[in-house]
């Protein structure tokens, strides 16, 4: 149910969404390459039968448990995304920065990848399953490029510093700001790379964000055009960056919420959201881990309500059965944390969850047996306490073979690349800086900001209140 408080002038605040049982279906998808377990020798144990176990638990899976199949596919940076991700030099790949990339060639390659039956990112024409775009090279909101993504900040600031006109304009603006504060401006050695002021961020956003927006918008548009039946969406969005080692606040910061509000252009461009609720164990209390998951799903609901997408957009957060431990020893979520995660997702009206795992988690017979036992002994009783939707999986239907390539791609080559991504994410868990950046919350303006946003939102709320009142007296 949505909690709404209305005050003077019919200004309402949506408190959040909490569903009673039965209000929304809750479907769990399996995106772990457990087909690889068939390759191992099991000398003292029975080969785990994941397909039968998952079917029994009403978890949707690909045919024979393949990582790539008719129910679920992840596309790893399809096309020619400009990126600094896999290149330690400052040239990057495909231009490195969004505004240096070639969007036309990217879209052409994107189409070629999707149509090429032997390509890792191939999608059959009649595909109706989940299609997740895993593009983690950069974030379209310039300020949010932190952690290893800080290279984008560095490069754009250097670009500004080389542009005498831009830099002088920023210096002039900074001088005026300092004078208003009755401070003596010292602009002699000022650079954006060194000082990183609000003015620098504002100019950098105007350089970085327009093409970042175009790359993301036109890519999803092209993919929906090519495979209109697929359930397209970007991995990771919306972001929240709550519960960090230096900040244990449950809710997303007001700055991040504002940035999410102004990313409406992205969230309304596709109907399936695939954010992440991976949790860490290090120095986080039980309460911290609950706040991490709850704070994020509250933000997903807030955005879905804000953009009036409640009946249109479905949200399937990614869940990892292991703690995000900076690539150290693999430790499974304890029963309490797993139960908390899935129960919170269901109670806060998520449409389901994607259980994810990588090849490293199933690369030995011992790991496969451990995972099987964990699902059977820990996940099974948790699911029995939740009203999980009956699986509509086609995984036991041999006719799906018509969707496959002559040479079936089983996901080989994915795990190493994704492993790098996970290692990066683990090293900067929820990587967004606090400190200096938090000062931007009152003065920094992203190019994605819209001057009409508040008006649109208030009009939308007023309209909804009118409908509520009208229905009461009808």
Describe this structure in words.
With 474 residues, the protein is mostly helical. It has a domain at 23-78 and 121-129 and 230-405: TIM Barrel, CATH 3.20.20. Helix content is 39%, strand content 9%. The protein is built from 13 helices and ten strands. The strands form four sheets. A three-stranded parallel sheet has the order 3-10-9. Strands 4-5-6 form a three-stranded parallel sheet, with helices on both faces. Strands 1-2 form a two-stranded antiparallel sheet. β7, α9 (286-306) and β8 form a beta-alpha-beta unit. Its EC number is 3.2.1.35. It comes from Phlebotomus arabicus.
Give the CA-CA distance, first to last residue: 22 Å
Read across the widest sheet, the strand sequence of neighbours is: 3-10-9
Into which percentage range does the β-strand content fall?
Answer: 5-15%
Order of helices and strands: EEEHEHEHHHHEHHEHEEHEHHH
| CATH class call of one domain | Alpha Beta
- Within CATH, the superfamily of one domain carries the name Aldolase class I
Rg calc: 24 Å
Q: Report the mean per-residue pLDDT as an integer.
A: 82
Low-confidence stretches: 1-22, 392-402, 408-436, 450-474
Structural class: mainly alpha
What's the CATH architecture name of one domain? Answer: Alpha-Beta Barrel
Could you tell me the CATH topology label of one domain.
TIM Barrel
Q: Name the assembly state.
A: single chain
Number of strands: 10
């Amino acid at each position: 149910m949505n909690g709404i408080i209305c005050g003077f002038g019919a200004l309402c605040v949506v408190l959040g969404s909490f569903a009673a049982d039965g209000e929304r279906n809750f479907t769990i998808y399996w995106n772990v390459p457990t087909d690889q377990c068939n390759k191992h020798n099991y000398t003292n144990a029975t080969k785990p039968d994941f397909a039968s176990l998952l079917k029994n638990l009403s978890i949707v899976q690909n045919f024979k448990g393949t990582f790539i199949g008719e129910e679920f596919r992840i596309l790893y940076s399809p096309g020619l995304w400009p990126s600094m991700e896999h290149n330690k030099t400052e040239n990057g790949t495909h231009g490195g920065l969004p505004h240096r990339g070639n969007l036309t060639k990217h879209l052409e390659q994107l189409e070629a990848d999707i149509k090429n039956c032997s390509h890792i990112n191939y999608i059959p024409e009649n595909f109706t399953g989940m299609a997740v775009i895993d593009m983690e090279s950069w974030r379209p909101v310039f300020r949010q490029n932190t952690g290893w993504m800080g290279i984008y900040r560095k490069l754009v600031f250097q670009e500004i510093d080389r542009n005498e006109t831009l830099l002088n304009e920023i210096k002039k603006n900074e001088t005026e700001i300092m004078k208003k504060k009755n401070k003596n401006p010292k602009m002699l050695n000022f650079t954006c790379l060194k000082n990183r002021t609000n003015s620098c961020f504002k100019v950098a956003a105007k350089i970085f964000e327009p093409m970042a927006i175009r790359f993301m918008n036109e890519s999803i548009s092209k993919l929906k055009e090519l495979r209109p039946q697929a359930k397209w969406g970007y991995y990771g969005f919306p972001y929240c960056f709550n519960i960090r080692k230096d900040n244990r606040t449950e809710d997303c910061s007001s700055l991040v919420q504002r940035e999410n509000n102004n990313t409406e252009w992205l969230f309304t461009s596709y109907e399936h959201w695939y954010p992440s609720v991976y949790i860490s164990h290090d120095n986080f209390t039980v309460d911290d881990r609950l706040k991490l998951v709850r704070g994020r799903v509250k933000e997903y609901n807030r955005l879905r309500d804000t953009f009036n997408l409640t009946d249109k957009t479905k949200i399937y957060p990614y869940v990892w059965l292991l703690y995000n431990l900076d690539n150290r020893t693999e430790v499974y979520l304890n029963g309490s944390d797993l139960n908390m995660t899935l129960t919170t997702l269901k109670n806060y009206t998520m449409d389901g969850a994607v259980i994810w795992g990588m090849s490293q988690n199933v690369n030995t017979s011992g790991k496969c047996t451990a995972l099987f036992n964990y699902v059977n002994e820990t996940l099974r009783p948790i699911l029995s306490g939740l009203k999980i939707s009956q699986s509509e999986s086609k995984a036991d239907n041999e006719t799906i073979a018509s969707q496959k390539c002559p040479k079936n791609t089983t996901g080989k080559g994915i795990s190493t690349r994704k492993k790098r991504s996970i290692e990066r994410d683990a090293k900067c868990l929820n990587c967004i800086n606090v400190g200096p950046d938090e000062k931007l919350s009152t003065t920094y303006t992203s190019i994605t900001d819209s001057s009409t946003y508040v008006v649109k939102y208030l009009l939308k709320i007023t309209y909804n209140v009118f409908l509520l009142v009208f229905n009461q007296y009808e």
